[in-house]
């Protein structure tokens, strides 16, 4: 049931798609951080809808209002609460869809959990919109991590069947990450962009949707962060990444492909380079051994399913009449949410990394 | 750092490979559960080493001694603590390997985290052996779940390049699960067994190791269990599954393959069957919508890397002399740990499911 | 650092005295509770300032705005977030008092903890005003407890040297509690009211302040709620009661007086009454044995210190110049906060009891 | 239900009075602490029974066996688990007392909570004996705190009606604490010792028991430790102190007496002394303002009830026959447990302080 995540850095989220506002309380942030509002707005705009023809036409300014924990431009150390007002709410009558369990959505499972009392308008508390405050918190975390020379970047590993290459050693640095951060479809191989855009627009015209894979890397973490077992780096990251709606898979380093290697291949051989820095010759373990960082880049890939809301006729059920039905949802949908989930993945990863670092010190 | 997992059902693990014993404290278990010791022993023997030529020759009886929370055959409701004594400890001198960071192992990352104070003998607290108490706890959880008509089963989805088929609807039931539970290499397609055994023995002779994928299913859960966001079924399961050493990937339902589907394919259409039971025509979402169960089987696959300990010459570092070295580890190794990790995956899943159910009630 | 309290029912508070609003997120509340807004407003008005000449003249409507988790009059099961806007903020210049550590206040300790970044205006996040959202949450908890026939009541046990009698068996019931709830100075012995009012007005004229003791009782709890050790009823209640600003002492049952009894007196003898209900002949243990309820009323007393803000000349320090100073605070102060803390004590007790009950079920 | 306490330093306790052993897992302790076993044994012997004629004749060596997290004399950083074997268990038949709810004990409330499945022998998990592992953990915490120049000391403030004086400024230092630590009845005014001993022996001859008050002080804490609200120093300390069996009251600084002061008296005036150290002229707030340390000594008093087990005829109930009875318990009882609870109060305070300090760092 918990709306709160974290050990030392705790984040609590709230709000519903059609309420007056959504938000988050971030507890445990250091006092004295000068918040870079431009950075935050930029990160939030990466997730915001209505940017272009690749996303939903619902327009939300996603303007963050900090109401607590912020004074004279700095964090105070008190709980930092941010509100994001819902502005573009269509006041249409939702009563006709109240009883329909849209496939791929939480309508049925939520109805069961909450005995029908959940706010069903626009998916209510299940709306992807609730990730906006996570992006706010993540932007703040990123800013603090930057001071510790820790950087997070990601790109679209695939959309549908179009595959970008994986991060190579040369791509995992603040400069490439900054470049990717600017792109609407962040790609290592930029020649794929045109194909991907065409595919998205084609599926959009068709009233259908696409999924994809996001690859994310974190560089600059010292060796020794994390824990064996329950708070392994993989556990902590997975716990918050699988909190992001639409995520259905997560793999670290070589991931599922490591299962096809022999031990002699999968083992990343350690060595000291000329400057006596520890390195591994490969990074199949994604920078993590025994749940703990080894100072190599942390790499992981996240599977994101196609947008559940599509403009096609579907079969489903009327939960109240208990009967099978055909139906079609009108409305404004993202033909693909992968582009908008990508900054959320970065954000929650930043939150998790900062919490792990904060939790490490005695 | 946390050795404790869970909300209402809390499990704390402790111990090191070469200490006198390892164990766990299980807090929050209902009073009045008549513990089925045979079932527990059977589950523990599935994980135990030394069963046959497919696993390490280290022999551990893995006999569980309950020292708290158990009285006259029943759980008391007080914290239940179990000890498992380490019996087959070779008293060889470990000082020569103290300084070597074995590739794929936590030697280096742990040394950094613990400033060199960690018990390095036999991987210390990072040993896969620490999962034995998890299997104990999982067996107890399974017993309680059985009373609620919830069953967990799994099979080897792949070893190296040999692929078993996925669970079909017909396989996900208590009878098939019971059959799989009896098998040394649990398979849907049993014709693959001979090939897999041959492959394992071949790699063993070669001093190398193999990885693989475990597929797990949970049936019988009511709709409405789980939460949006931070305690989604995926989050909770992933947090404990990624705690299991050697796990590098996890996917639910169609997993990474869902990224190649269109929304119209990925959406599992709901319908009521003749008995008015809710069903979905496909189960690409693995029984989970919006983080909450929909009553269909929960399905997931876990990527397990090849055993890191191999009998081949490898290159690595001496952490204390800060120099690059060649070395070879002697000792008793599993040519493949997938077979022994499989019951651990079932166990931690049972713990997670029981905690979610316990946490659901007001 | 934690702004969040609770196991299954989690409450997170935020806000500062001079920000735009304060509030709380209540997570884990049952869906389908029809919120009684009148009851909530009434409870909040018990704590609100500016009611009469016995409290500060700062006037705050303390109107609660629910922005999440509430739909069509019922709780949805999603996190319930409430905002309370700060309306009567005097926009005076606080810079002159920024450097003064007011005695009895958190100015100095907060300055040290937050390295001077804390919002010092009107005590910032340390303001007693932050208890308003706790009263909101407590009123909601009380409403749910009432459905379970659990009632909470309290009275002023003492103000300065004027002592009311303790709760007798006859006073601990919903009818007396309802009567006490209506009173500005809730008393068992109502003849003391005039004396207490005179004393308060006298001290107010004198620019000084008073403390007092609140006695609280909870009736209707079944036997078997609570835990040995870390989640004993006393531990759980104390943890949230000592969170209330100005609380310096807490005792259960006979409290400190039990130390002067012999065991033969202190032991509450059990018996079954004519209707076979379990009773104890005395209640020196305050309805709790071994940390667990025994079905008798839970009784406790809370020591509340005099308001720290007084209108007298005091000596203190200038934290920035590091020098000793004389100073006098002007402004609107409560001559006694005990009257306003009393509903907060009831509120946090209700939150704690509901969390304990929610946490009890498997 | 929780057997686990703490944020960053987590302690989990287990065991029952008549099981094979009791113990604790301490998670989150720094690696590299050279454990001072003599110090630990000494602290444990302060709590151990059978020391002299002032305590029960049950003799328990209370020898701690560390089975995890300890290697070559140092903490490893892995969970540290300690076992204490139960040696002096009288194998008498407990079946005759199974059904009796002893007054002052948890027999009835536990029976309700655990549906009769709790181990009732020797109070089972409710036995004061379960505090022995807390003393172990506390001794370890004390050792670490000593390195930070933080010291904890306590004395018997009262037994029955005999009152020692309160801690004066001159008594709160490591030298006086060391002297008190050596005393069987630690007192500021040592002239009272003879009277107290006589009183205890008299009550013992009489088959009855006594309670008392422990006063505890913590010196050396920097200003800025703690939090407003839910993790105030008072909340954190109270939560673990009220976990200790027999504690019925707790007050900080002037405690309940502060309610009789005026604000102008209760406010501790700050000043800088000649060396520019911050001091307060009085310490009625017990070193805590707004939940946060101000660098002055933390002072509190704990009310401990008389031993519930007495050798007198009492009236009570047979829980199974549901009838009122007369009964008398034979056995070995403490005429007063205050002397043995005192080191437990110091221990849990040390645990709490260390956790607060660990939790403070970013």
From TrEMBL, chains A, B, C, D:
It catalyses: 5-O-(1-carboxyvinyl)-3-phosphoshikimate = chorismate + phosphate. FMN binds at residues 125-127, 290, 305-309, 332. Gene3D superfamilies: Chorismate synthase AroC. Reduced FMN (FMNH(2)). Its cofactor is FMNH2. NADP(+) binds at residue 47. Its EC number is 4.2.3.5. GO terms for molecular function: chorismate synthase activity. Keywords: Amino-acid biosynthesis, Aromatic amino acid biosynthesis, FAD, Flavoprotein, FMN, Lyase, NADP. Pathway: Metabolic intermediate biosynthesis; chorismate biosynthesis; chorismate from D-erythrose 4-phosphate and phosphoenolpyruvate: step 7/7. Transmembrane segments: none annotated. InterPro entries: Chorismate_synth, Chorismate_synth_AroC_sf, Chorismate_synthase_CS. Homotetramer. NCBIfam families: aroC (TIGR00033), PRK05382.1 (NF003793). This reaction introduces a second double bond into the aromatic ring system. Belongs to the chorismate synthase family. This is Chorismate synthase. The lineage of its organism: Bacteria, Bacillati, Bacillota, Clostridia, Peptostreptococcales. The gene is aroC.
